[in-house]
Amino acid sequence: MKTKLTISPAVAAEFILQESVVAFPTETVYGLGANAFSGNAVKKIFEAKGRPSDNPLIVHIAEMGQLPSVVATIPSYAEKLMEEFFPGPLTLVLPKNKKISNAATAGLRTVGVRIPNHPVAKKFLAECGVPIAAPSANISGKPSPTTWQAVKFDMNGKISCILKGNPSRVGVESTVVDCTGNLPVILRAGGVTLEQLRSIIPSTRIGKHHIDGKAKSPGVKYRHYSPMAYVFIVSGIEETVPMKSSAYIGLGSSDKKKFGLKKICRDEHEYARSLFHFFRECDTKKIETIYCESVSEGGIGLALMDRIRKAAIQ
Ligand code: TXA
Ligand code: MG
User: Fold this and answer.
1) pTM greater than 0.70 (yes/no)
2) Domain architecture of the chain: domains with CATH
3) Which atom of ligand 1 is least distant from the CA of 108?
4) Is the CB of 134 within 6 Å of ligand 1?
5) What secondary structure letter does DSSP report for 68?
6) How far is residue 131's CA from residue 145's CA, in Å, rounded to a whole number?
7) Which pLDDT tens digit goes with each residue over 91-149?
8) Residue 208 DSSP one-character state
9) Which ligand is nearest to the CA of 141?
10) Which residue, among 58, 89, 16, has the nearest Cα to 299 in the 3D structure?
11) Which protein residue has the closest C-alpha to ligand 1 atom 17?
């Protein structure tokens, strides 16, 4: 298959209307989209990614007016979260509208819905006119792509079109919040922080990943975000062995140690924005060991440490 590269949301949307798969930029990471009403179109996403079919996709819309075509009901606390954080890096899991394909939700009766806060994504979704099911646009298990070049690396020849945009601003995925119970429960930490959610709904809690032995958010049970190298979590650069084949990413340090690759970030936000890109650079340079400095789990640190820990599972 020839993969078209374009900067035109309208050109990309035409592929969607032909049941094809299109990668598109968002503020979190790039997504791999198809018409969420069409099981036939959605199945092509799972094929391109090599994603297990029991892992549901997030459905993306351009504006609140499209919500009734995606979800069946919305509890009032979820409405409050939407008012505050839509558009943005937040996904709410709600009872699904029957029109959404069962392939998109992996047969669940719920659907994750999100409105990205990104001008190109917004134009693209508006041009499509239908809700777009989209996971991150990486090959399953690999770090999520934060640039169109990373999408091309993973998906060239496997999908119809890549809508090019700038590097993703947030760099980690959206926060997934289960809104099917009496209170919001975080299934995956992400771009909207626990503190931000609690400022609107104080009773928001972090979910245990497995309920009754069954994964409530099926994606959390799979290996994720993995570069080829071994990832080690360290509390500082002093704990590392610098070599040509090792790499370091962390926060400010005056240490002059030399690595094959090194990234010192200004703060946790830059760290989050850089992590997946750094992992991919390490792959290109055939780095064998990556040291990631641990950070405190307040704010974006919660999502950042979640991604680092998952990458460190061998
Ligand atoms: O920022 C993001 O969320 C990006 C961009 C493209 O929007 N998307 C993304 O999708 O990260 P993906 O498929 O890589 O991760 C979606 C996560 C998975 O852990 C999945 O299991 C969970 O959300 N999820 C999706 N629908 C769900 C549902 N109905 N119930 C529980 N978890 C759900
Ligand atoms: Mg993903």
Assistant:
1) yes
2) 4-206 (3.90.870.10), 230-312 (3.40.50.11030)
3) 29
4) yes
5) G
6) 21
7) 999 999 999 999 999 999 999 999 999 999 999 999 999 999 999 999 999 999 999 99
8) P
9) 2
10) 89
11) 219
Task: Give percent above pLDDT 90 in the chain.
Answer: 89
Mutate to test the pocket of ligand 1, among 102, 113, 173, 185 (most ligand atoms within 8 A of CB): 173
Ligand 1 touching residue 187 (CB < 6 A): yes
How far apart CA 303 and CA 188 sit, in angstroms, is 8
Nearest CA to ligand 1 atom 7: 31
* Ligand 2 center–CA 137 separation, angstroms: 7
Q: Say yes or no: CB of residue 26 within 6 Å of ligand 1.
A: yes
> Per-residue DSSP letters for 292-306?
EE---SSTTHHHHHH
The pLDDT-based confidence of 231 (bands split at 50, 70, 90) is very high
Secondary-structure breakdown of the chain: helix, strand, coil percentages, each rounded to the nearest 5: 30, 20, 45
pLDDT in tens, 257-285: 899 999 999 999 999 999 999 999 999 99
Cα separation of 51 and 140, whole Å? 5
Q: What residue type is 24 in one-letter code?
A: F
